[in-house]
Amino acid sequence: MQAVRNHAVRRVDSWQAELARPLDDRIGAAPPHLIEYLTLDNTVQGIAQRPRPAVLEPEFLVDVKAAIRELPPQVWRLFRERLIGVYFVENLGGTGFSDAVTDRAGNRVAGYIVLDAAVLRPLKANAWATWKEGTPFKPKAGYALAARIEAEAGDNRKNAIQYILLHELGHVFSVGNVLHPPWELEPKDVPVSAVYPYFDLSWSIDRRASRYASRFDKEFPQRRNVAYYFGAKLASAEMAATYSNLERTNFPTLYAATHPGDDFAEAFASYVHVVLQRRPWQITISRDGKTVKVFTPCWDEPRCADKRKVLERIVGR
Ligand SMILES: [Zn+2]
Description:
This protein is α/β, with parallel strands linked by helices. The protein is 33% helix and 19% strand. Zinc ion binds at residues 167, 171, 262, 265.
């Protein structure tokens, strides 16, 4: 654990060579010191996978660079100094993640993104979103959830990568910005006097249990059982009620309700995708082939007005 905590990868000094290059050149296979760190981290966390640098075929890199190039310029501009790079591995043990790096005084000053190329390679936008948004619910015959984040013409790998990248960029943006407590901190260790303008709109801290509570846990009792990717806790019969209650909160997506950091990352991705890029985003829940609930973005609804103001200040409108 010590080797993970004190690893050079977590210090901005060890990235000087990368930071001297243009941002476009900091997108590619993970450097050896990052692979070493990821391997140690997986070992500590009991994750069996041993990451290796990705060998990126030209068509894949074309999709990644196009996904970035097509982001609104005011979005990419936020990351010149803050983003160390986007690095690809295989066998990560997840789709991707971001981490913060610190200066010599221990201040979080930048972040990097790691993505698993083997996971991304076969993806298409709507199939990926449908899979992800279905993971909190135990599968049951007759119940279905479909997510649509692209029109048919844009339902491709490049746009799947773009949406995944937007979420991770949301995490990187939070580094060095006062939005929510840093993810390295245990909830009980967050200073009592700290003010986080974004976090405070939805969250409070249960210090005794050292966990984050939402301000909407009464209206939205399912929130505690929202678990993505591994081990669904909610019954499929609760899909429609879960999304109806989500509308009584200011969380932009269901995943946003799982953790303060993901609340911001989801809001960032959703706002850029829906408001700035005018792309579709919809969850449709059906029972025996009949639609029973449609959930759409909240950016024009009063429930998300305060969060929208925060995002407008960051990326414009
Ligand atoms: Zn996340």
